[in-house]
Amino acid sequence: MEIYTLLRQFADSWVLLALFAFFVGIIVWVFRPGSSKTYNDTADIPFRHDDKPATDKEART
């Protein structure tokens, strides 16, 4: 059997399955319970000190 044919069959079956499992894992990770609080907190970082500058203590946290 030619090496190209062997690699092509392997890629068509197991690599495709592995990439699909990776994709599903990423989707599950992004939409896991409790993750929206983390994402909302991260998205609000630029607006935390809109009204006044951060103090030294606040800047370290």
Q: Describe the biggest sheet?
A: none
How large, in whole angstroms, is the Cα Rg?
Answer: 23 Å
Taken in chain order, the helices and strands follow as HHH
> Total number of helical segments?
3
Q: How confident overall, as mean pLDDT?
A: 85
Q: Level of helix content? A: 55-70%
User: Structural class of the secondary elements?
Assistant: mainly alpha
Low-confidence stretches: none
Strand content: under 5%
**Amino-to-carboxy terminus distance:** 61 Å
The count of strands amounts to 0
Q: What best-fitting shape do the alpha-carbon axes yield? A: elongated
SSE order and pairing:
Elements: H1 3-30, H2 35-43, H3 56-60
Please name the defining characteristics of this protein.
69% helix, 61 residues, elongated, mainly alpha
